[in-house]
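Curious: explain these C-alpha cells?
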Amino acid sequence: MGPRSLSLLVALVLSMPAAAQRPERPDPGPVFRLSVSLVQVDAVVTDRKGRHVTTLGPADFLVFQDGKPQPVTAVAYMRTDEQYFDQTGAPEPVFVPTSPRDARRVIGVVIDDSRMTFESMYRTRSALRRFVDGSLQPDDLVTIVTTSGARGTSWPFTFSRPELRAAVNRLRFSLWNASAAGALDPIENTFQLLPTPDERFREEQFAVNALNRIADVIAGVRELPGRKTVLLVSEGFSLSGFTDWRVRDALNQLVDRANRAGVVIYAIDPRGLVFTGFSAADNGNPMAMADISSRRQDALWQTQDGLRYVAGQTGGFAVVNANDMPGAFRRVMDDQRGYYLVGFQPSDDTFTDQRFRRVKVKVTAKGLRVRTRAGFYGVATE
C-alpha cells in the first residue's frame, strides 16, 4: 500500500461516524488445512479440572504423524468467546449480525429422531429450549436438522432465536418409529442373543441415514467462516462385528469430510442413565435373566461406542450415561470457548498416496490433556 493510498484510508476512517468505528472482528482463519508444505490442525488443551489452557506456544507442542515427530511451525490460540471493545476501551454494543459471514461460530444441531423414544424426544426438546435461550451468542449461526427428513432438502441457518425456538417446538415423536423394537426393549425370546438379519438391516439403515444427514450439514457449513460444530443428539449406532460395511464406509467418509471442513462433532445420548437389568416386562425362562442383562448392556455399550468414535475422530467428545441433558449442552458450548491452531510440516511422502495419516498432538507440560482430530487422508486441499 503506497503513501497516498494509506492517507486516503486514514481520511476515510476518520470521516466515519463514531458509531460506525466498531473494530473489525478478527478472521478466525482456517480451522483445518492441508497442503504439501503445511498441515494445520485444531486442538483443545485442558488441565486436570477440564479448564482450557490458553497460553501455550510452539515450544510447548509435539506433533507426531504416523508415530514420527514432525516440526511444529506455528501455534495460535483462537478465542470464540472474546469480548470486543471500542476505541475508548468500553465494551462494544451487542453485535447484530446481518450476513452468514458475520458468524463467529456455526452450529449444526442434528436430531437423530428416526428411532428416538418418546422419553428421549421429550428430554431433547426441553434441553434444546434451554440451549437456545441460554447458551448461544448473538453471532452464533445455527440450524436444527432431523435425520427423518429427506436428503437433499435445504434447511435455514439463522441467527434468530425465535426461529430456532419454533424449530425446536416442531420436533415430534413419531409413532411410526415406535413400530420397530429398540435394542433395549423387552426381549420376547431370551435365548435369541444374536441380532436377526432383519434387526441388523434396520440398525444399518438407521446408522447410514444419520451419518448421511450429518454429511449434508457438513457440506452446508464447509465454506462458512468461524468455528464449525455439529452437535449430534442420538441414541447411537452399533460398531459391533455385525455392522454392515456400508456403515463403516459412511462413517469413514463422514470423518474425512468433517476433518477437511474443519468441523468438530459432539454427540449427546438422550437416553441418560439406562437400566439394563431384568424387569417384569420380560418373558421367558427366569434362568436366562443374566443373559438378558448382559445382552442389553452389550447393546448399550455398542451404540455408545459409535457416538464416541464419530466424536473422538473429529476432536469432539460424547456425553453418555448422563441424566442432565441441559448440562450436556453446556459442556459442549464450554468446550467451544477457544482452540489452538497447530501448524506442522508433514513428512515428504504424505501426499504420495491417499492413505490415512494418523496425527497425535502432545504438550510438554505434565498434567495437561490434548484433544484433536485422529488424522487425515493424504490428499491436499490446495
About this structure: The chain has two domains: 31-80+341-377, 100-334.
